[in-house]
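Record pair follows.
FIRST:
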Amino acid sequence: MSSPPIVIVPPASVNKAVTALYALESLGGGHRFATRLIATGPVAKIVVVDKKECCDCTRDRTECTLTVLNQALDSKDIPVERLHVDTQEEAEEAGRRFRRRFRRKKKQKKKRD
C-alpha cells in the first residue's frame, strides 16, 4: 500500500498576497466591493461580526464600517453592535443567543400590545 503523495502548498499569508496583487492588477486600486444590506421588516439592531484575531487592515476596515454605519443610522435609533468570534462554534452560539433575545423581545411586545 502506497502513501498519498506529499503536496507542498504555500502558507495562507502568501496566498492572500498573491490574490491581493491579482485583484489589484485586474480590478484596479480604485475598486470597492459593495455590501448590500436588505431588510424585509423593521430592523432592531445591526451586528457586525468579525474575528478577535485578525490583521490590522481587516481590523481597520471593520472600524471604518462601524463608523459609517453608526453615522448613517444615528438619527434612526438603530444600534450597531460589534461581535468578535474566532470559531464556527462561537458564531453559532452567538446566533442562538441573538435569536433567543429577539424571540423574547417579540413576546414582550405582544404582551404589551
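SECOND:
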Amino acid sequence: MKTCSKCKVPKPLSEFTKRKSSKDGYYCYCKACCKKAYQEVHLKKLYGSDIEDSWVDSLILDWDRLKIRTAEDIHLMKLRMANARASRSLVSKKGE
C-alpha cells in the first residue's frame, strides 16, 4: 500500500505508475490523479490559461464521458465551450 501525494488516499501499488528514479520504484501520484492532471494541462493549453477551474472540471467530466480521442471531438468541445461562454455573458448582461 502507498498513499497518493495528491489525493492522500492509500491505494495498492498497482494503482501507481512505475518509476525507476523514485526511491520506492513508483510515481508519487496515483494513475487517476496523473490522468486528471494531464487533462487539466491539456485543456488549459487548448482553451488558454484564463479558463476557470469550474469549467476545467466540467470539461474533464465531458472528456471522460465522451471519450474524446480525435481532433473533431476537440473541435466540438471548443464549440460547446464557446456557446456556454456566450450564454453565460448574456445571462450576466440581463442581470445588470
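COMMENT: The radius of gyration is 18 Å.
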